């Protein structure tokens, strides 16, 4: 199968749209604590959909996993666990730096480390990236992507400066630049571990191809392993919160037992690449009377929709990666840029930027233009690499 970088860029855009939109499903969940609906949806994100699609769209999944070297399975799983830890600290990044600055810093680290380190570990960076014209074009696209993330952060900071002092204290009551940068560094590197997990799973791709799996679906067995690792971290944390908040009964009983923390005050357990889903969901919430029972069937259905949409980001990601040829490491930059593009567009649609000044609007527009340009340049660099080959 011949690589098609432009198709790859389009598939990464679809993945970014899925990541930016998945939390909309959770807006339909009623009277469940955050940890309950996050884990219920996560079952579909990390277990049901990865296994279902891998079993139906690839060949001999269990045989492929049995033939995979133990070290490849271990590292793919371990990096999935570490990616989950990045999600655990993302909420702290927002607490100490605020949503806009925190997201810009965390996403910047995630984009840089997730894009550049895999080819360095493979020993391909000097020869394939620095040593070729197409590689340098892609590297330029990565730098432009980071610039676009910087503009997005600047737009957020500009917006925050337009708030009153009282509003600022309410938004970032625990602001600490030093502590926030340390946490954001850890968060960004750990969140980038998803890319490392996919790279560690390269042997799985080779084995599944030998079993007759089409090239386009070769990444699906890898997702099975990496997402089990992510499930481990998220499962442990959600169960801890269920016990702490006494909300574990919500999985089985519709009858409410007292009060549980409102969405806006609960810890956000999302990796940097999932943001700003929680904030987007809260924008839809409206005051309503507290009923005595939770709609169990509807809640599980909405969680299934949200969880499935979340998984689709990496379904499209692995498809897009197959189209990037020798420079598949650039897929992470395309994924990150696409998430920010569509998250920003959702923010505009939800009027999050309503009433801001001209400078802030210009920065938002500039960030979108630069990020879109970065995806085009990275795609063009991959096209050059295919032509040179």
Overall outline: globular
Described by strand count, sense and barrel closure, the largest sheet is: none
Backbone CA Rg: 21 Å
Classify the helix fraction into a percent range. Answer: over 70%
Distance between the termini: 14 Å
User: What is the structural class?
Assistant: mainly alpha
Which percent range describes the beta-strand content? under 5%
Order of helices and strands: HHHHHHHHHHHHHHHH
Parts with pLDDT < 50 across at least 5 consecutive residues:
262-287
pLDDT averaged over residues = 80
- The DSSP helix count reads 16
Number of beta strands: 0
Can you characterise this structure?
There is one protein chain. The protein is mostly helical. The chain has a domain at 5-27 and 88-203 and 254-282 and 290-388. Helices cover 73% and strands 0% of the residues. Residues 262-287 have low confidence and may be disordered.
Descriptive tags:
389 residues, single chain, globular, mainly alpha
Strand and helix map with partners:
Layout: H1 5-21, H2 34-57, H3 61-67, H4 70-97, H5 99-122, H6 125-130, H7 133-161, H8 165-171, H9 177-191, H10 193-200, H11 202-210, H12 220-245, H13 277-282, H14 296-322, H15 331-349, H16 358-388
Give a quick precis of the structure.
This protein has 389 residues and is mainly alpha-helical. It has helices spanning 5-21, 34-57, 61-67, 70-97, 99-122, 125-130, 133-161, 165-171, 177-191, 193-200, 202-210, 220-245, 277-282, 296-322, 331-349, 358-388. It has a domain at 5-27 and 88-203 and 254-282 and 290-388.
